Amino acid sequence: MQDQYNYGGFDAKTYDLDRFDKAQLGHKAPDGPVLVLGRKTRLLEFDGAFLVLELGSLTCPLFQSRRDGMDSLMAEFPDLTHGVLYIREAHPGARIPAHQSVEDKIARAAELRADGEKRVVFVDGLDGALHESFGSYPNAVFIINRNGCIVYRSAWNNPRATAAALRRLLKGKPAGREGLMVPARPAIARQTLRAAGPGAGLDFLRSFPRLVWKNLIKRNLRLIFTGHTGPTPDTGC
């Protein structure tokens, strides 16, 4: 029986693309045990005023497309904690398949580090319980304050919007609304799916029309016409 969390093939219907309804603004961020380079810790045991947490995996074209932008963000805000929660493979293929064990997940996280990832890479359990507590999307981003409260979140990471949110927070202002969804760069998308191996690209193409409608059109239009400022940087929860 296929693991429902670590699916063997991507299907957009796995995700509720109309409601990103967990880990809400102003609420306590999910916490739990994680591994960092084999060392046990907890996600919310971080240094600095904020934790900037992005969700990602080797086989997620969106995550791979954001890495340069997040490197720049890390350079601009060096005193904060910048992390990646390594999740299930977004687009598993023959070469990078779905995780069958925690050891598989740790190995993929190590590959990400070896590929030049400078941020802290957190690994939760095989069942992705922590990931699912954060809404289970493949490339969401959260900013969490020292009280463990979520002061910014976006269902899809947009590094420019995330950087702008941090600038506002560090000035004592609410972060503002989440960023618009920006597609993965085509060259990086092709490279990522090719690296995942046979099966990954075809599964992606099957779901492509649904992804465009739900995210690039429907979600972005909703954000454009919805105003929201969010909690203050030092909010308690």
Beta fraction: 5-15%
How many angstroms does the end-to-end distance come to? 40 Å
Tell me the radius of gyration.
Answer: 17 Å
User: For the largest beta sheet, what order do the strands appear in spatially?
Assistant: 5-4-3-6-7
Overall structural class, as computed from helix and strand content, comes to alpha/beta
Poorly predicted regions: none
Got a strand count?
7
Largest sheet: 5 strands, mixed
Average pLDDT metric:
96
Q: Could you give the order of the helices and strands? A: EEEHEHEHEEHHH
Q: Shape from CA axes?
A: globular
Q: Please count the helical segments.
A: 6
Please estimate the helix content.
Answer: 25-40%
Explain this structure.
- The chain has six helices and seven strands.
- With about 240 residues, the protein is of the alpha/beta class.
- Helix 1 (about 60-75) packs parallel to helix 4 and helix 1 (about 60-75) crosses helix 5.
- It has helices at about 60-75, 100-115, 130-135, 160-170, 185-195, 200-225; strands spanning about 35, 40, 50-55, 80-85, 120-125, 140-145, 150-155.
Protein topology:
Elements: E1 33-36, E2 39-42, E3 50-56, H1 61-76, E4 81-86, H2 102-114, E5 120-123, H3 129-133, E6 141-145, E7 150-154, H4 159-170, H5 186-196, H6 200-224
Parallel strand pairs: 3-4, 4-5
Antiparallel strand pairs: 1-2, 3-6, 6-7
Task: Produce a short descriptive summary.
35% of the residues lie in helices and 15% in strands. The chain contains six helices and seven strands; from the N terminus they run βββαβαβαββααα.
Task: State the main characteristics.
single chain, 237 residues, alpha/beta, 6 helices, 7 strands
